[in-house]
Design goal:
The protein is mainly alpha-helical. The chain is built from 14 helices and 7 strands. A hairpin with a 2-residue loop joins strand 6 and strand 7. The longest helix is centred in the middle third of the chain and has 38 residues.
Length: 407
């Protein structure tokens, strides 16, 4: 096997771990360390501390070669296929149902039902796993494309509010710059030159804002990761496709927010400006009112949505789950304990700090991955159904330990 640098240091300290051995508790087998590897990057869909040779599983004491060759009902393994460039995945996808029907036979399945009707195999791109895969027993909790879209839409709304703010403030301050525009026109400035000047100013302001935003992101990202339990990396911004978008953003935002003030202020007539006869037209006031209404509407929607999400999170944290989750200690169960479990339980209960002890195949906060099908007997005939029965195996101490109330 090979270890990450952190794991190697944990077990061997500063010694060279190569060719030393490790005994894994759940396998009771010696493994030789043949290498140390860098931890996989944060955007990987798996982050193992140890990588073992698959060939090791052929050892009869661990799994056995016969099991590997004949047990098609085992979901313990993740299979990766490296396909030729440009390969049509429909070719192999179309053969999966026939493969299941030939090799996989589910216990208790009626003879008239084919295996692919009860279970299925799927193929997906490696790069799709993080955001688009929500299969049972993923290696790690995945992200969700919908969340990315939702946060992107929120970000776009916030930028739109900022753009409207800039438009309103710029047009509100137009009277202060009217003489500047009038003088520039008198000495020969063209309208397109004045428009370019105001657009350049808005782009420059956006660039300054971007510098502040990058600085704040760098400082606050560790706190955000701590609150959200995410592992967002600041260096992700330096990938060329993201960096290109970030560098283009000030130009886009600057042009969007600056185009209306630039066109409006460049339309001032120098004679009216210099004689103090400039008045802002009704059309402009109406458009500014539309912008203000739009700005406040978006703000209200975001505030209401944030309030609802906050209430949902509070509900998740405080709602009754039907069992007591506080002061419960869970530990892995070893099959070797089965014959002595009652003695073990009585020994634990002698401790005044222990109120009750129970066993279960899964804990209430775990995922319900154990299920079986169901059949209906009608008129002496057995017919299959589409029902899946999720179950947990428990002993008599389970209900009382978790403080569950029976209906």
């Amino acid at each position: 096997l090979i270890l990450t640098q952190t794991t190697a240091k944990k077990y061997f300290g500063n010694e060279d771990p190569i060719n030393k051995t490790i005994i894994l508790d759940n396998i009771k087998h010696e493994f030789k360390v043949t290498g140390v590897f860098e931890p996989l990057p944060s955007n990987s869909h798996m982050h193992p501390n140890i990588l073992m040779s698959f060939n090791t599983l052929k050892d009869t004491a661990i799994y056995g070669e016969k099991q590997l060759e004949t047990n098609f009902g085992n979901n313990s393994f993740y299979t990766y296929l490296l396909m030729p460039k440009g390969y049509n995945m429909q070719v192999i996808s179309g053969q999966l149902n026939a493969f299941l029907d030939k090799y996989v036979h589910l216990p208790g399945m009626p003879p008239n039902v084919k295996t692919h009707q009860a279970t299925k195999l799927t193929i997906q791109k490696l790069t799709d796993i993080h955001l688009q895969s929500h299969l049972d027993d993923e290696m790690e909790p995945n992200g969700n494309t919908k969340r990315v879209y939702i946060f992107s839409i929120i970000a776009a709304f916030i930028l739109l509010i900022a753009c409207i703010n800039y438009m309103n403030l710029s047009t509100a301050r137009s009277a202060l710059r009217a003489k500047e525009i009038g003088v520039r026109k008198v000495i020969g400035a063209q309208r397109k030159e004045i428009i370019r000047q105001f657009l350049g100013e808005s782009v420059l302001v956006t660039w300054v804002a971007l510098v502040f935003a990058v600085g704040l992101t760098w400082m606050l990202l560790p706190y955000i990761n701590g609150i959200s339990h995410l592992n967002l990396q600041f260096n992700s911004l330096f990938k060329w496709n993201i960096l290109l978008g970030v560098l283009c953003l000030p130009f886009v935002i600057g042009l969007v927010s600056g185009i209306y003030p630039a066109i409006f202020m460049s339309s001032f007539k120098p004679v009216q400006v210099l004689k103090g006869m400039l008045k802002v037209g009704d059309g402009n006031i109406s458009f500014r009112k539309v912008l203000v209404v739009l700005q406040f509407s978006i703000s209200i929607i975001l505030i209401v949505a944030t309030s609802i999400v906050f209430q949902q999170l509070r509900f998740i944290q405080t709602a009754s789950l039907g069992f007591n989750k506080d002061h419960i200690l869970t530990t892995a169960y070893s099959g070797t304990l089965t014959n002595q479990f009652e003695s073990f339980r009585q020994e634990l209960l002698k401790n005044p700090a222990v109120k009750d002890v129970g066993r279960s195949s899964r804990i209430p906060s775990g995922r319900l991955l154990d299920d079986q099908g169901a059949q209906v007997i009608e008129g002496g005939k057995t017919t299959p159904t589409n029902i899946e029965l999720k179950y947990i195996t428990t002993d008599y101490g389970f209900v009382s330990t978790y403080g569950m109330q029976m209906a």
